[in-house]
Amino acid sequence: MANYFNTLNLRQQLAQLGKCRFMARDEFADEAGYLKGKKVVIVGCGAQGLNQGLNMRDSGLDVAYALRKEAIDEKRPSWRKATENGFKVGHLRRSDPAGGPGG
């Protein structure tokens, strides 16, 4: 599988490694705590959008989806995935999509 690091030559890789550091275990202790109390709005509900939302919700975050008006009006698969999994859905153009469709 290709990734950014593997596209670099050896000299570039060594330079990048010189800028990196291993994170200590305690840096992960708070997990998603820095997002607690904030609303997370995911644009789109394709395969990745749905799974990311499910993971964030499982971590205790308040997650909603912003979709195109047509996707909501026509009840497209993205709308069905989000609503069938209990997420709030709003129009992409709304400033607060979590308020629900059309509102």
From TrEMBL:
Keywords: Isomerase, Oxidoreductase
Domain KARI N-terminal Rossmann: 15-103
Enzyme class (EC, first level): oxidoreductase
GO cellular component, as recorded: cytosol
Any GO BP: L-valine biosynthetic process
InterPro entries documented for this protein: KARI (IPR013023), KARI_N (IPR013116), NAD(P)-bd_dom_sf (IPR036291)
Recorded GO MF terms: isomerase activity; ketol-acid reductoisomerase activity
EC number: 1.1.1.86
Protein name: Ketol-acid reductoisomerase
Gene transcribed to yield this protein: ilvC_2
